[in-house]
Model the fold of this input.
Amino acid sequence: MSAIRSLSKAVFAAGDRFVRPPAGPRILIYHQVGTSHGHQMEVTLDAFAEQMAWLAQNRQVVDLEAALARWEEPGSENLAVLTFDDGYHDVFSTAFPILLDLGMPFLLYVSSSLVGEDTGIDTADRPLSWGEVEDMHGSGLLTLGAHTHSHPDLRTLSVAEVEAELASSDDIIEERLGVRPRHFAYPYGFWSAAADGPVRQRYETAVLGGSPRPSPSPDRHLLHRYPVQLSDGFVWFRSRLRGGFRMEEALRKRIKGYDGP
Done:
């Protein structure tokens, strides 16, 4: 990790200490584990294993529905929900054995057009196969969620185009695995006004990116998540759980030109 990035992490973590910590369980975003691409939205195998071991000892990892049911309980900030986006092979080959050994539930949001293909969103990425998804689902730990069919930025689509993306995704997942997804993740973590209505009609929950502002109770269709990054390692992972690196996330939104919730 570069000295500049390390310094920025320290500044962002310090900034969290001047505002009230977000209420409720910590919903974590992972994408890839142990792929060595150098993307910020991946973590090393060693870091992931250490993070999961720490969660097993210091937090209670629950599924999303349990987290929502307990959101307003005292101490709910000590609950953690594990989510994975897109659907990469390393979730099965690298992350799943660790989660299986620890008995940790997790939610996988898949983009249905990528599963079973030779390459993912980046040509260096290998997607999951449907057989691998089925194996994880059979463990009883996996909850399957939808992440659209082709992973577009929903802010650029009309309501009709959004509907087509959601319908294709839901139909393919149900055809392949016999389950209709009840949970949804917005691609890139970006909410869309055109998608809000269709998403609320189809799914019981929907998640975004970025850390939440303090709020006593959640909107089940505007759930913020804590993105675990390569530069977090283990040291800053615990800081992210405490405050969410909200300054860092605000800067990321500004850079990406996102002004949604």
